[in-house]
Amino acid sequence: MTDKYDKNKALKIRAMFKNISGRYDLLNTIMTFGRDKSWRRYVIKEASLGPNSLILDVGTGTGKILHEALLSNNGIKAFGVDFTLEMMLAGKEQKENISWCCADALVLPFPDSVFDAVTSGYLIRNVMDIHRSFAEQMRTTKPGGKIVCLDTSPPPKNLLRPFILLYLKLVIPLLGFLFAGNKNAYRYLTSSTEAFKTPEELALIMKDVGLENIRFHRFMFGTISILCGTRPSSHTDLNCFLKTLRYE
To answer: CB 54: neighbour CB atoms within 10 A?
Structure first.
């Protein structure tokens, strides 16, 4: 069971995203110099969706990833889950043909083996239990289906690192203040990036959960990573693994 501290942290994260929901998409575009759209397209490419595929986006926010999925193939069925209602309401005003659901990424309200692909964008950095989150995503994915994760990565240790850290610590909070009136939220987002796991570490967790054929690609000077894994065609150990993570 998650402890009281973790629950309080989750509530704080929810409140933070509630406060910035109206400007979240705009800030993402500004902070990434407009590259965020190309990353979402890459996520959908990795998801390998067919004409009648079902896709679930966990931590969907305003549904941007699902919007790209629908643009790539309007025959798919798109489902979005987020635990911040205000983020989804902001997206629902602009995006049609998405089924929205307010739920926790650690306890997805879907049966086993439903979706052809499960995606997430900037989710894993904020969950209380990374293993549990990936396990839930795999549980709801059909055997042979894809799990694709887009998230930030700690700046690589190279010559660009000091400049990237300067951008993260000073420029992004300033942009958050100017465009969203919330410097502290974007301080959290940058600090969580610095403290987050490398794509190599995330790949090991995905392997631990039971995913196969895991690969990742870095973008934007190594500060963005997209990881992709496949649920095995037969996975007899998944239920046993989930039992070890089950809440009391």
So the answer is: 21
pTM of the model: 0.87
Fold type of domain 4-152+198-245: Rossmann fold (3.40.50)
CA 228/CA 160 separation, integer angstroms: 26
In this structure, what token pair is assigned to residue 57? 């986006």
- Provide the residue type at 20 as one letter: I
Do 234 and 194 touch, CB atoms closer than 8 A?
A: no
Cα separation, 195 vs 107, in Å, equals: 25
Task: Note the pLDDT tens digit of each residue in 127-157.
Answer: 999 999 999 999 999 999 999 999 999 999 8
| Sequence spans of domains, the chain | 4-152+198-245
Inter-residue contact 46 to 118 (CB < 8 Å)? no
The pair of structure tokens assigned to 29 is 């575009």
The separation between CA 146 and the C-alpha centre of its own chain, rounded to angstroms, equals 14
Residues 6+ apart with CB under 8 A from 166: none
